Amino acid sequence: MDDDNSDYLDEPDDCDCEDYDADILEGRARCFRCGRSWRMTTQQLSAETRWQASMFEASDADIA
Length: 64
Ligand SMILES: [Zn+2]
Prior knowledge:
By secondary structure, the chain is of the alpha+beta class. Helix content is 34%, strand content 17%. The longest helix is centred in the C-terminal third of the chain and has 22 residues. The model has no long low-confidence stretch (mean pLDDT 82). Zinc ion binds next to loops.
Protein backbone atom coordinates (compact mmCIF):
# COMPACT_ATOMS: atom_id res chain seq x y z
CA MET A 1 0.00 0.00 0.00
CA ASP A 2 1.05 3.62 -0.54
CA ASP A 3 -0.37 5.02 2.67
CA ASP A 4 3.02 6.03 4.04
CA ASN A 5 2.63 9.63 2.88
CA SER A 6 -0.90 10.18 4.16
CA ASP A 7 0.44 12.77 6.61
CA TYR A 8 1.14 15.10 3.71
CA LEU A 9 -2.59 15.49 3.04
CA ASP A 10 -2.80 17.98 5.89
CA GLU A 11 0.12 20.05 4.63
CA PRO A 12 -0.43 23.01 2.29
CA ASP A 13 1.68 22.25 -0.78
CA ASP A 14 4.86 20.57 0.35
CA CYS A 15 6.23 23.44 2.38
CA ASP A 16 9.40 22.51 4.19
CA CYS A 17 8.95 25.46 6.56
CA GLU A 18 12.46 26.80 6.25
CA ASP A 19 11.36 30.44 6.47
CA TYR A 20 9.78 30.78 9.86
CA ASP A 21 9.38 33.43 12.47
CA ALA A 22 10.69 32.32 15.84
CA ASP A 23 9.07 33.58 19.00
CA ILE A 24 11.64 32.76 21.63
CA LEU A 25 9.46 34.06 24.43
CA GLU A 26 6.61 31.74 23.52
CA GLY A 27 8.96 28.99 22.42
CA ARG A 28 7.05 28.69 19.16
CA ALA A 29 7.84 29.08 15.51
CA ARG A 30 5.49 30.06 12.70
CA CYS A 31 6.08 29.47 9.03
CA PHE A 32 5.83 32.50 6.75
CA ARG A 33 4.74 30.44 3.79
CA CYS A 34 2.08 28.06 5.06
CA GLY A 35 1.29 29.68 8.41
CA ARG A 36 1.92 26.50 10.32
CA SER A 37 3.12 26.99 13.86
CA TRP A 38 4.88 24.53 16.06
CA ARG A 39 6.64 24.28 19.37
CA MET A 40 10.40 24.63 19.04
CA THR A 41 12.80 22.22 20.65
CA THR A 42 15.17 23.41 23.35
CA GLN A 43 18.00 23.02 20.88
CA GLN A 44 16.27 25.18 18.27
CA LEU A 45 15.42 27.76 20.90
CA SER A 46 18.97 28.12 22.18
CA ALA A 47 20.26 28.43 18.61
CA GLU A 48 17.64 31.07 17.88
CA THR A 49 18.36 32.94 21.10
CA ARG A 50 22.07 32.98 20.34
CA TRP A 51 21.43 34.23 16.81
CA GLN A 52 19.11 37.03 17.94
CA ALA A 53 21.54 37.98 20.70
CA SER A 54 24.37 38.29 18.20
CA MET A 55 22.15 40.44 15.97
CA PHE A 56 21.35 42.66 18.93
CA GLU A 57 24.99 43.02 19.90
CA ALA A 58 25.89 43.85 16.31
CA SER A 59 23.32 46.66 16.05
CA ASP A 60 24.24 47.86 19.52
CA ALA A 61 27.90 48.08 18.57
CA ASP A 62 26.88 49.90 15.41
CA ILE A 63 25.27 52.72 17.39
CA ALA A 64 28.26 53.12 19.68
ZN1 LIG B 1 5.58 25.95 6.04
